Amino acid sequence: MKKIGVILSGCGVRDGSEIHEAVLTLLAIDNSGAKAVCLAPDIELDEVNHLTMQDTGAKRRVLVEAARIARGDIADVKTAKAEELDAIVLPGGFGAAKNLCSFAFDGSKGSVQPDVLKLIRDMAAAKKPICAICIAPAVVALALGKDLAPKLTIGNDAGTAQAINGTGSSHVDCAATECVIDRDNLIVSTPAYMLAGGIAEAGKGIEKAIKATLELIK
Questions:
Q1: Strand-pair partners of 60
Q2: Which of 91, 120, 166, 194 could form an S-S bond across to 21 if both were Cys, CB 3.0 to 4.6 Å?
């Protein structure tokens, strides 16, 4: 059975993983006959009240919050080894841009959380597929842009696309129901809620992205 690492960034669109995208990812992996291995960095996040969408001033732990989505079956990403995984997927949500990297604050000059960076680079070096959803391609762009210049999508937002290009990556416009496949670098991306008007539309793109990712496994 193929093992697919799913790197979560918390629980909730404004301060963690976008829950619809994360669950659709897990569903697509399970439907494919593969096994999802949920991972998250054990770091602090700034809590957002998802009723008001305002910062609360409180702190939470990314790993603890992500465990809500994983039903407790989750590990610290620093314990993950590329040789034990066949591919990795990064769902979106603002946590991907705030907790997994600093793209939300620093754009193309941002950095990636060290444990996440190591796993992404190790997977790329091992020629194993990487899939990124919604804003999460920004994490991959920061991690691999200078070395691999991957082709990625976050949809068609001009400002975000420019920042992606600023990492050395190449942004490709894409509809929410489709995905972009960089076969040279084994990287798949789809816009999901960067463009999608609802869960069904996001689901179509995510399903295609997961299918494409699994097909790239050698």
A1: 45
A2: 91
What integer pLDDT is reported at residue 57 of this predicted model?
96
- Residues 97-136 have pLDDT tens digits of 999 999 999 999 999 999 999 999 999 999 999 999 999 9
Q: Is residue 179 among the annotated active site residues?
A: no
> Residues 194, 178: contact at Cβ < 8 Å?
no
Cα–Cα distance for residue pair 15/139, rounded to 1 Å = 15
Catalytic residue among 101, 131, 134, 174: 134
CA gap 216, 53 in Å, rounded: 38
Distance in angstroms (rounded) separating the CA atoms of residues 92 and 138: 10
pLDDT at 212: 98
Tens of pLDDT, residues 162-189 = 999 999 999 999 999 999 999 999 999 9
Q: What is the pLDDT of residue 174?
A: 98
Q: Which residue bears the tokens 């732990």?
A: 61
Report the Cα 150 to chain-centroid distance in Å: 15
